[in-house]
């Protein structure tokens, strides 16, 4: 088997996306806690930032598709279950334990049998901290990966494009029309947009769909302007209820923006820097534990980032959260058992 060369564009994209997710979750937490005491302009700007960061998770999924759906990458069912699915299950259980322990400590509760039961309830019911939804998504993707690989291995480029078109129309365009009151009765038996991102990442990276840099840049600019305009319009005309059109991963605008960013970054010939490769290895762990620091800063230290120089304060606090998360992951990677999945 030919050893796959490092893809530095993915290292950069994963790292940038990880930092974007930290900012997204920080802003979301800040709005949730302090949104009622800030001005309408501050609230609007914060909401715009949130909506403009939704590309981060889709780009993660597209990278997964580009790498794992590669026809030349051999993945047995045994390897998928033991290496990929088991790793996420272990990470999920670890997070459920850590977050329950954290909640018990900050709320000054006692450790008892219910604490142990709560861990397993959180694990199976998905009732732990909200950002862990992504782990359940990954498990679902990995479980279906053998089927997805059959599709990419046997389908022609034309059929892949056809699949993407069907996904786009039924999982993005039609739901958007429903939101604005136009009912369409047709549907397909797929409830999630994430397979679309998975296959699109594969199609873009492997040249089935080709976008020139100026096209990718145009898609980014156009979708960004649309998101900004519609966010402002939605706040001033809330009766239209455009929330699902904007704050949703199946949004046409989020899809266009995500594809543009992925395509643009992937088209750049990045220099082979070892530091970005080392940083990339830490991004999964940062995603797992960064909410510990966000919650501590915003909720338990009661720091309102909107009070003084919000742009500076939020930027500095997000950098602090990112650095603290990186350092924590570096330490955790030295711990036996934990280092196998973080």
Task: Please describe the structure with a list of short key phrases separated by commas or semicolons.
342 residues, mainly alpha, 2 domains, 13 helices, 72% helix, globular, transferase, Surface polysaccharide O-acyltransferase-like enzyme, transmembrane, acyltransferase, transmembrane helix
Please, could you describe this protein's structure?
The protein has 342 residues and is mostly helical. It folds into 2 domains: 125 residues, no CATH class; 197 residues, no CATH class. Helices cover 72% and strands 0% of the residues. Helix 4 packs across helix 5. The longest helix is centred in the N-terminal third of the chain and has 30 residues. The two termini are 27 Å apart. The model has no long low-confidence stretch (mean pLDDT 93).
Could you give a quick summary of the protein structure above?
By secondary structure, this protein is an all-alpha fold.
- Report the strand count: 0
Write down the Rg: 21 Å
Termini separation comes to: 27 Å
Summed up, the domain count is: 2
User: Could you estimate the helical fraction of the residues in percent?
Assistant: over 70%
Secondary-structure blueprint:
Blueprint: H1 8-34, H2 40-52, H3 56-68, H4 77-106, H5 113-125, H6 133-154, H7 157-179, H8 194-205, H9 213-236, H10 243-246, H11 252-267, H12 274-300, H13 310-332
Family: Belongs to the acyltransferase 3 family.
Keywords: Acyltransferase, Cell membrane, Membrane, Transferase, Transmembrane, Transmembrane helix
Transmembrane segments: 12-36, 48-69, 84-105, 131-148, 160-178, 184-204, 216-234, 246-267, 279-298, 310-332
């Amino acid at each position: 088997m030919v050893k796959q060369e490092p893809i530095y564009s993915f290292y950069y994209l994963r790292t940038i996306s990880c930092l974007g997710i930290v900012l997204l979750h920080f802003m979301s937490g800040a709005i949730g806690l302090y949104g009622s005491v800030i001005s309408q302009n501050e609230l609007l700007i914060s909401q715009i930032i949130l909506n403009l960061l939704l590309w981060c998770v889709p780009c993660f999924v597209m990278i997964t598709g580009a790498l794992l759906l590669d026809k030349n990458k051999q993945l047995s069912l045994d390897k998928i279950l033991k290496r990929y699915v088991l790793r996420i299950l272990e990470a999920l259980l670890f997070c459920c334990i850590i977050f329950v322990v954290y909640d018990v400590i900050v709320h000054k509760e006692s450790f008892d049998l219910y604490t142990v039961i709560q861990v397993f309830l959180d694990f199976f019911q998905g009732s732990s901290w909200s950002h862990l939804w992504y782990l359940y998504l990954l498990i679902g993707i990995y479980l279906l990966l053998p089927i997805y690989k059959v599709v990419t291995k046997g389908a022609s480029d034309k059929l892949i494009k056809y699949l993407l078109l069907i996904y786009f129309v039924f999982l993005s365009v039609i739901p958007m029309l429903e939101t604005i009151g136009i009912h369409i009765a047709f549907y397909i038996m797929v409830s999630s947009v994430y397979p679309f991102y998975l296959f699109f990442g594969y199609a873009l990276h492997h040249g089935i769909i080709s976008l020139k840099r100026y096209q990718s840049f145009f898609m980014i600019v156009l979708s960004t302007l649309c998101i900004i305009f519609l966010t402002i319009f939605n706040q001033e005309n809330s009766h239209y209820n455009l929330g699902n059109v904007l704050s949703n991963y199946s949004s046409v605008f989020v899809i266009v923006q995500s594809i543009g960013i992925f395509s643009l970054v992937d088209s750049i010939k990045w220099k082979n820097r070892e530091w970005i490769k080392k940083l990339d290895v830490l991004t999964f762990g940062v995603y797992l534990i960064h909410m510990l620091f966000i919650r501590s800063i915003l909720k338990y230290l009661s720091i309102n980032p909107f009070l003084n120089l919000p742009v500076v304060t939020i930027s500095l606090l997000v950098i602090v959260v990112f650095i603290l998360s990186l350092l924590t992951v570096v330490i955790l990677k030295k711990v036996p058992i934990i280092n196998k999945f973080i």
